[in-house]
Amino acid sequence: MSMLEKLDDWFVGRVSFPLTNFLLNRKEILSNYRQLVQSEWYSQEQLRDLQIEKVKSALRHANRFCPFYTARFKEIGLVPDDIRTLEDIKQIPPLSRQDVINHCADMVDVRCRPYLDAAAQSKRSPGQPIPWGRFRRQKLIKNTSSGSTGAPVIFYDDGSVTAVSWAFELRLRHWYGIEPGAREARMARISVDYMPNDLQIWTRKRLWHQLMLPGVNLADKEYAFCLQKLREFRPRVLWGFTSALAGLADYIRRTGQDASSCSPELAIGWAAPVYEHEEKALKEVFHCAVTNIYGAREVGHVAAWCPHHSWHINQEHMLVESNCNPRDGEMGEIIVTPLDTSPMPFIRYRLGDLGRPAPSRCGCGRTLQVIEDFLGRTGEIFVTKDGRMIPPNFWCRFFMVDGQSQFVERFQVIYRRPDYISIRIVKRQGYSERTEEDMKRILRKNFSPDVCFEFEYVSRIDPQISGKYQMVVNEVKTQPAGELHGCSAR
After folding, report:
1. Is the sign of the CA dihedral 463, 478, 381, 403 positive or negative?
2. Tell me: the pLDDT tens digits for 200-237?
3. Cα–Cα distance between 195 and 214 in angstroms, integer?
4. Is 154 helix (H, G, I), strand (E, B) or coil?
5. Per-domain residue ranges for the chain?
6. What backbone phi and psi angles, to 5 degrees, belong to 140?
7. Measured between alpha carbons, how far is residue 305 from residues 89, 431, 438 in Å?
8. Which of 44, 115, 421, 468 makes the best surface tag, with the fewest CB within 10 Å?
9. What is the DSSP string of 355-390?
10. pLDDT of residue 489
């Protein structure tokens, strides 16, 4: 890298990126980042002290300004100042997605209520910031979740959640030796037909060093477009929906394209787990490190892989719980409380994933808590009659056994009944009856004899509206997986 390029990166990372985001009311990104690279080495006692102070502040704010929480705290007889330890927050009932859907307006800070209608009726894309928002009285932005759980959630922010998430991303890149201002290509929630206008693209490329690329509804034509843009831009970081990144890597490998001229140093998967076969493909094609961010649009980035592949929690700004007792070594549903005040607080929000927070024993030396036994969404876990849980990762490993991935373009598993599983497959050249028989043989080893499997061959499997591919569809109406293990929500 030339001295001029280094100066350009420094200017973008230290001046134009934080300044323009400040004008969009996304404040303190750089100062938060600088603090995060120090606090990740704090003792757990220091981190918990920081968390308890932030919890108290967040609860006072919610109780005073958000009618939903005022009523909820009154109903359970809770006074925020009574919270002495992090365990005390468990007196508050968990917040479900349906709670947010039913009580959205009452969850919003009353001081922002005069602007709620304008935000709700805005023609801007979900999450798109308000120009010069720092200097406007109306700072409220409408956003939505992906709807991957079947229930899209509408929520409101003023830029504060995005600002903290930006700081987390800067820290994550720092873990891999990449400093603020480095060039980054982002395969985002846009399609080729709905790309941002030229001014937005130019602004992000020049002032943020971000190349915006389509990340949904991608076919070979779109992958070819993305690859050409990557060759021209030469980013050090490739960020995007996991399915988009994996699809791009698969396209490059299938078509024998040369990616050496655009190989990034780091690929960051978002909005879905990076499974073993996807990580392998990304490493083989781009010859780079691979990491993964876990979170939700409603609350921001919750955790991320360090270079040792531990899921480190962003503990300075997030309180992560599980609705099981961690001393029992069990896992339960992950519950998250963002610790910074915002126009619409999410206190003890149920994310719908299984795992448990635990002290770090990671080789990287960072003291931040980790998520262990991270199995994924509760609705994507199949519980057998003998009580075993089959997580989504089982199917990734299954399709990698004996090199079967070379014959399968894409797959989707549908749990029809407790004893009936349908597997949809888009075949590649070379798929044969022998391939199906090999898969059936492996399945019989892992499932009880009463489970039947149906193979359905299709020409394509469409993504969800969010752009993500749903690997597992669970149509079985059973108890939540957490309750099967004595982990019912408190």
Report:
1. negative
2. 888 899 999 999 999 877 888 999 999 999 999 999 99
3. 7
4. strand
5. 381-484
6. -75, 135
7. 27, 35, 34
8. 44
9. EEEE----TT---S-EEEEEEEEGGG-EE-TTS-EE
10. 26
